[in-house]
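Severity: low
Component: inverse-folding endpoint
Summary: output formatting inconsistent between runs
Steps to reproduce: submit the following structure tokens with default settings.
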């Protein structure tokens, strides 16, 4: 009896099991449904809906791959570490051409660290630097125009180095925000506040305010030693300036990003009471996207290699996980300063490559990156 029962039970159960598996495998559609399907999902499938730009996770508009292209026109032949171009600004289109600003260093020797630094020997790749600019009509061939913002004479702020600039266009005037070092980077840390110069034309001349426009935080706060990578956008009728600081390099907390807003390019800037607003990343790269702001979160922190999105410009969520992100990217953003409520995204920009592994030849070069983060690839303004 016992034998008979089990011999009947086994085929009956296996039939049900096999047919159930077969049916559920068949019922999951070949393409991903727009809404999260009401059926058992693996953890991975489930978070594909919950975490990444639902309701069309297979079509995540903030997912992309990156392509890199060598530039023409800027000298790529000198790799002995005495010339460096790095940390490009956003790119703007004015007077029929693209403009970009960047940290330019031309010194007798490569950087040698803070202990060996002198008035002519740089401590770091961005020490003893100036802010230079180039223009282009196609985004590939660039013509170097020379210095935009020189190091001011001692004892003015930034006399040791001016670097890592970004541009704001506001009511037909141009405002350049940049790191101003009054001692060699690395002496204590990579310490600097943010300075600002302004001009009626992207070709200058630039007038320096000779003032700190974004001050470091008070003692024992996360941004007490440095404000790096100032990055202004116009959003919600205000200047939204994102920046990086670094908890003084504490290993677990290294490098996060904050926000300071203002009604006027000269300030005062008010830091967000939710700072840091991004717990990961390195150099700042953000752009208006739909009603909010999207951010590249590169290189450092638990959430590095992601693109994040904040509906309100403040509370960021991971939108996608990506690879080979552009370092220090300066994108071309057609609506960076239009106070848009429907940001259109980006398709290209400049970034830098550093050769950190060969310290005795330490320098950086600029390159072009292309990506697909535009809401309308046929939009002629994106090119
Ligand atoms: C960069 C930026 C800032 C830092 C240094 C030069 O990539 O994050 O500019 O100070 O490194």
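Observed output (run 2 of 3):
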């Amino acid at each position: 009896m016992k034998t008979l029962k089990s011999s009947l039970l086994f085929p009956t159960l296996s039939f049900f099991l096999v047919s159930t598996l077969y049916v559920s495998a068949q019922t999951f559609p070949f393409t991903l449904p727009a809404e999260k399907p009401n059926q058992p999902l693996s953890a991975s499938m489930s978070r594909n809906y919950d975490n990444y730009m639902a309701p069309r996770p297979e079509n995540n508009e903030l997912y992309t791959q990156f392509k890199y292209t060598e530039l023409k026109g800027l000298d790529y032949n000198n790799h002995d570490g005495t010339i460096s171009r790095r940390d490009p600004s956003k790119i703007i289109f004015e007077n029929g051409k693209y403009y970009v600003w960047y940290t330019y260093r031309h010194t007798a020797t490569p950087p040698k660290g803070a202990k060996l630094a002198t008035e002519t020997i740089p401590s770091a790749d961005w020490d003893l630097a100036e802010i230079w600019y180039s223009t282009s009509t196609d985004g590939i061939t660039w013509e170097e125009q020379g210095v935009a913002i020189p190091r001011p004479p001692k004892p003015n702020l930034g006399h040791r180095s001016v670097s890592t600039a970004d541009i704001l266009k506001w009511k037909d005037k141009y405002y350049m925000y940049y790191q101003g070092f009054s001692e060699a980077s690395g002496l204590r840390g990579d310490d600097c506040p943010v300075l600002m110069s302004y001009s009626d034309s992207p070709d200058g001349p630039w007038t320096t305010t000779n003032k700190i426009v974004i001050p470091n935080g008070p003692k024992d706060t996360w941004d007490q030693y440095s404000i790096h990578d100032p990055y202004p956008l116009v959003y919600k009728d205000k200047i939204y300036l994102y920046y990086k600081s670094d908890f003084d390099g504490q290993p677990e907390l290294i490098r996060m990003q904050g926000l300071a807003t203002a009604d006027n390019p000269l300030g005062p800037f008010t830091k967000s009471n939710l700072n840091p607003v991004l717990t990961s990343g390195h150099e700042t790269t953000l752009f208006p996207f739909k009603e909010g702001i999207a951010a590249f979160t590169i290189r450092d922190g638990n959430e590095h290699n992601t693109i994040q999105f904040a509906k309100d410009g403040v509370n960021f969520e991971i939108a996608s996980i990506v690879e080979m992100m552009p370092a220090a990217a300066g994108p071309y953003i057609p609506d960076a300063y239009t106070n848009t409520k429907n940001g259109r995204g980006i398709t290209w920009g400049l970034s830098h490559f550093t050769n950190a592994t060969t310290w005795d030849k330490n320098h950086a070069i600029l390159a072009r990156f292309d990506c697909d983060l535009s809401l309308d690839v046929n939009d002629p303004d994106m090119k």
